[in-house]
Amino acid sequence: MADRETGRDRRQVLLGLARTGLAAGGFGVLYHVLRERPRERSATPGIFDWRRTGGQRAGAIARGSDPAANVRRAVAALGGMERFAGRGETVLIKPNVGWDRVPEQAANTDPDVVAELVRLCLEAGAARVVVADFPCNDPRRSFTRSRIGPAARKAGATIVYPPSLGTRPADLPGVLAGLEVMELLPRADRVINVPVVKHHSLAKATLGMKNWFGVIGGGRPRLHQGIHRAIAELGAAFRPTLTVVDATRILVANGPQGGSLDDVRRVDAVAAGTDPVALDAWGASLLGLDHRRLGFIAEAEKLGLGLGDPSSLEELGTA
Amino acid sequence: MRRLGPVLAAVPLIALLVWILVRSSAPPPGTPQPARPASAVLPSASAVDAAGRSTPARFGGDGVYEYLDGGAEIHLARGLRTIVVARYLFAGEGGGETEIEAAAMGFEDSGGAAASAADLRPANGTPVDGLAGAVAAPGELVMVRGRWLLRLLAVPPGDGIDPRMVRLAAVWSAMIGGPRGGS
Q1: Angle at A52 between CA A46 and CA A58, to 5 degrees
Q2: Which residues on B lie below 8 Å from A227 (Cβ)?
Q3: Is A203 in Cβ contact with B72 (below 8 Å)?
Q4: Is-contact B124 B89, C-beta < 8 A?
Q5: Distance CA A155, CA A158 (A)
């Protein structure tokens, strides 16, 4: 009897050990699967999220005739670039370099704004800063004529544009489905979106969320159908670490291409922040638009991307 | 009379056949006119005394987005069919260079060209003497000729109306054809 019980006990011990082994093995397999999944997801990611948590302010606006000083003040008010670009990280800066235009024509981001952001990232310890865009016009000419290429290179950035810059598949949702994106995106640790404030004949304004058109490879024309929804969905798919809106010069008519100096207004302001919707609302107000009546801002609010309220940005005044 | 009877009876039938043939050979309304070669839309460098000209690039259909991005939509709605773009290089007086970008936009009809020209004309522009349909400002000139619209942008823009832009527009106007703007 005792022997039988001892045998049963032994069997139970062995069974227990087998179960524990199976559970441990299963856990190991599960751990491997879970560890591998993010890598798979980053190969064809649906959403690109480079945000960093923390910070109290939605953003800050700095004014003055020196664009670089405006960048420094606005970023400092948010806690400094160290909050957005970590030591050893690769930072991608995405300005608007869409057009073969000089800075005075306000079709592209101001080169001094881009260059100052490069310097701040490097000072904050970033290992590498890359400035990239898919221009509408000839890429080499656009980067040269806008003076963004030479200025950013001098500040220490690597400049990349087609044909050296390719695209890769991305599992983007909604109206963006099937579109390819800039191949650099999954490799960037942090991303800074740097739009310029411009009129847009179709969307009324092109600002931060619209600036993501420039990371899409082909198929951009299709996004112009239902453009407000498309802009908001771009804002949902690409979540930058920081947005810096350049309003040194703004284009008030015939955008986004511009060309006429008569359509350019000097505003001498830069806004930086983490609420892309509030920043777009601020940019729209500079164009004399009521942000509450702008389709893409309303759509972005519905998607929970931010608050279309420019008053949430701290006004730092003129230096 | 007995001989003429069958002939007369065939007249309506022949007329019907002729009408069908004519209708089938004519392009239906709205059919795009054959495109001019890009080189026939913008003048050569020598015709405007420029030091050089880039090879004209043509953008048509969805391709106009490549040149205008979202700005294409409003012009497409007005019947924009094609854009031909080239850059002219002129030697400056002080040794510098002026580059003039010329964009000729071909519309379905003159109404579309006129409507888009109204948008693109420089806000502080003034009519150009001796060049009907042209409005210019420093560094910029917009002109309509029939169903064609020409936009010139100079870099650097300079202080006044650049006579080289006026000459380029005049040569283009003569080249592009009559008041209907040719084909």
Answers
A1: 105
A2: 70
A3: no
A4: no
A5: 9
CB burial of B70-85 (b: ≥16 within 10 Å; e: otherwise) equals bbbbbbbebbbbbbbb
The length of chain A in residues reads 319
Q: Summarize chain B as % helix, strand, coil (round to 5).
A: 40, 25, 35
Q: Looking at the domain that runs over A46-318, which CATH code has it been given?
A: 3.40.50
| Vertex A263: Cα angle to A262 and A268 (nearest 5) | 105
**Do the chains contact at B69 and A136, CB–CB below 8 Å?**
yes
Cβ–Cβ < 8 Å for A144, A18? no
Q: Hey, where are the domains in chain A? A: 1-43, 46-318
CA distance A175 to A179: 9
Residue numbers in A near B150 (CB within 8 A): none
Q: Quick check: B76 contacting A, CB < 8 Å?
A: no
* Helices and strands (H and E) in chain B: how many: 5, 8
Strands B140-145 and B148-155: antiparallel
The predicted model scores a pTM of: 0.80
What mean pLDDT is predicted for residues B89-118?
92
Does the ipTM exceed 0.95? no
Q: Where are the domains of chain B?
A: 33-176
Chain segment A79-131, per-residue pLDDT in tens: 999 999 999 999 999 999 999 999 999 999 999 999 999 999 999 999 999 99
**Is B123 in Cβ contact with A262 (below 8 Å)?**
yes
Considering only the top CATH level, what class is B33-176?
Answer: alpha beta
Other beta carbons less than 10 A from residue A30's beta carbon: 10
Residue A43 CA to its chain's centroid (Å): 18
* Chain B nearest CA to A271, separation (Å): 24
Q: Shortest Cα distance from A222 to chain B (angstroms)?
A: 9
What are the two backbone dihedrals, phi and then psi, of residue A62, each rounded to the nearest 5 degrees? -115, 140
Which amino acid type is present at position B149?
L
- Does B70 contact A263 at a Cβ distance shorter than 8 Å? no
Query: Is the Cβ–Cβ distance between A200 and A256 less than 8 Å?
Result: yes
To the nearest 10°, the Cα dihedral for A31, A35, A41, A43? -140
| Nearest CA-CA partner of A134 in A87, A176, A94 | A94
